[in-house]
Hints:
The chain is mainly alpha-helical. The chain has three domains: 3-113, Winged helix-like DNA-binding domain superfamily/Winged helix DNA-binding domain (Arc Repressor Mutant, subunit A, Orthogonal Bundle), CATH 1.10.10.10; 122-165; 174-274. The chain is built from twelve helices and three strands. The chain has helices at residues 3-14, 17-23, 27-38, 47-61, 68-81, 101-113, 122-138, 143-165, 174-215, 220-236, 238-251, 253-267; strands at residues 45-46, 84-87, 96-99. It has a three-stranded antiparallel sheet. Strand 2 and strand 3 form a beta hairpin. Helix 2 (17-23) packs across helix 6. The mean pLDDT is 82.
Amino acid sequence: MGIATQIELYRVLRSQTAWSLLAADTGPETLAYLQTLLFDSERSLPNSVFIDRLHGLMNQSSTQSVDREAAAAKVTLWRQQGYVVRTLADRASEPSYELSVGAFEAIRFVSSQSVQRASPTESRLEILIHAVKKLVDDTDTDITKRIARLKQDKKLIDQRIQDLRDGRVNLVSESEVKAQVYDILSRIEDLDGDFLRVRNAFHALAEKIQADVMNSEATRGKVIEQFFAGYDSIAESEAGRTFNAFYRFLSSELATREIDELVQALCERPFWDKL
Length: 275
């Protein structure tokens, strides 16, 4: 990528929500409020609850009393600035608020700077090596070499089984545990970001279809055709493929039962309460 293209790319990014939030004079307080309300524990709040909790936080952080109207006005401003998204679910008594994609990415970036990252560990290096080996194997057309690598993997597995039978059990260190947990949480946040992008894309598609129905002179068939074209575009995007893969996973009773069992096993480990 040439330097001119790189500069232009960053100019475009600077106009987007994540960059504008990070650069705003009120960025620190806005990021703190939004992280506390819509990132750390809950990802969606009803309108009244969102305003009430924000009202409480504003009074905690201010030397002067702040009324509820000020909190409601701040929520409205955040929506106008693109930091939060308001949705109304079927049969819901009031709308709910969630982070926009840009605000989610900004909070994720800033919060990661205040967390002491685990240094490269043996398990992380193993994951890297495994990923490289998998790519080599998946792209190798030489059947003989692929079989040879599988035999080598089998040999290593047999050796690990024998070590366990002989009573040689190697447990990972505390730093290894923290590094692996950090990596798992990072991947979960990656999924959250993809889901937000899919949600926003469908919201934009719904608004476009509604506008087309109201204002366009096109036939209903044409509008429906445009809808499915937009749907296919979302489904074929990287975020859309991630969403579909996760949906298939949730639809699999065997897979969900397996992940539940794995999480339960982790909860019973001695290190769990120390995290």
